[in-house]
Specification:
mainly alpha; ADP-ribosylglycohydrolase fold; two-stranded antiparallel sheet; 63% helix; globular; single chain; 1% strand; 358 residues
Length: 358
């Protein structure tokens, strides 16, 4: 195991994890749902922000991570309070009419509004929802396995009950934790680190081993997708996204730019895959390891870059003091207005895809 000789800077790890999520999300968003062949026609590399006239915006992947941080700030890591707080935030988030919400998440939040307990609101699904919001939990939990497992379980079961979703979310959180602590995992070491989450899931073991073998052979992510049978791109299924993310992370644990280039050209659920990978790599490289041009062209509101940095600062204080704070918030009305604009622009992108290049 190769370990960087340094003490982890938790604030930098929080910033890198959240902004890595946001940048990956924003870079992948314009290509979401496209096949690798169609993406290649648009000549995506070198990557740049292109969602709105050279600027990037975030989707639900980043928004969920922000809500997780807010819940951590107001609970100081106490699992019961965290669960209730995150459930409350998910309910109000839905009233903002977010675009592209996953069906499992939608059904779960509706159940919450109808009075279901956060302990029983999840539906049977192995989608990416829990994984896309779990990386920041891994960074917060630092080296506390029990805290990581408890918080990720609470977050996951709010929306997803399939054990595959929980295992995937736990592995993403653990990978982010390792990254934040400067531990560069080598191919062949994954099961050593993730064994407590894999249990007796032979399918997951096989997928992780495939990712490790592919990374060891330095195959491109696109080639690995062909091995997985993902000819039209990665799907929203956890056991499709997770091995792809691990394969790229093993090859580029500290190269944020290259990691993003690799994952986005694979097509499919590009924003979520890039957000998860961005969170893991970002936790290790910090904000300074993310290309400045991508950060500078990230323009959103009310969850702006500065707002996210303020949230990270709060989380860092709470982690050190163990005392909860009132998390910085956003206006539901403001979010609704923003989402209406966002929806129009998503539809504009969909209309654009009717035209060449094919």
């Amino acid at each position: 195991m190769n370990t960087i000789s340094r003490s982890p800077d938790q604030l930098k790890a929080f910033q890198g994890c959240l902004l890595g999520t946001a940048v990956g999300d924003s870079l992948g968003l314009p290509f979401e749902g496209m096949t690798p062949k169609r993406i290649a026609r648009f000549q995506p590399v070198p990557l740049k922000q292109r969602f709105f006239f050279g600027h990037g915006m975030i989707s639900d992947d980043t928004e969920h991570s922000c809500m997780v941080i807010q819940a951590l700030v107001e609970s100081a890591g106490k699992v019961g309070i965290f669960r209730q707080n995150l459930a409350k935030r998910l309910r109000w988030w839905l009233l903002g009419l977010p675009a592209g919400i996953g069906l499992a998440t939608l059904r779960s939040i509706i159940k919450l509004w109808l009075g279901a307990s956060p302990n029983s609101s999840g539906v049977w699904s192995a989608g990416n929802g829990p994984a896309m919001r779990s990386a920041i939990i891994g960074v917060y939990a630092d080296k506390d396995f029990e805290l990581l497992a408890s918080l990720v379980t609470a977050s996951t079961l709010l929306t997803h009950r399939d054990p595959k979703a929980l295992r995937g979310a736990c592995i993403v959180a653990k990978a982010a934790q390792l990254s934040a602590n400067g531990i560069c995992v080598q191919p062949g070491q994954c099961l050593e680190h993730f064994s407590k989450f894999v249990e007796d899931d032979n399918t997951l073991v096989e997928l992780i081993e495939l990712a490790e073998t592919s990374a060891k052979n330095n195959e491109s992510a696109a080639t690995f997708c062909q091995t997985l049978g993902l000819h039209k791109g990665v799907t929203g299924y956890t056991y499709h996204t997770l091995p792809l993310v691990l394969q790229i992370w093993l090859r580029y644990p500290q190269d944020f730019r290259k990691a993003m280039e690799e994952v986005i050209v694979c097509g499919g659920d590009t924003d979520t895959a890039a957000a998860i990978l961005g969170a893991i790599v970002g936790a290790g490289v910090g904000m300074e390891g993310i290309p400045a041009a991508w950060l500078n062209q990230l323009k959103d509101w009310p969850r702006s870059k500065q707002w996210m940095l303020s949230l990270c600062l709060q989380l860092h204080r709470v982690m050190k003091s163990k005392q909860p704070e009132t998390a910085v918030g956003i206006s539901v009305i403001g979010q609704l207005v923003r989402n209406l604009f966002f929806m129009v622009w998503v539809l504009a992108h969909g209309f654009r895809r009717l035209f060449p290049p094919y």
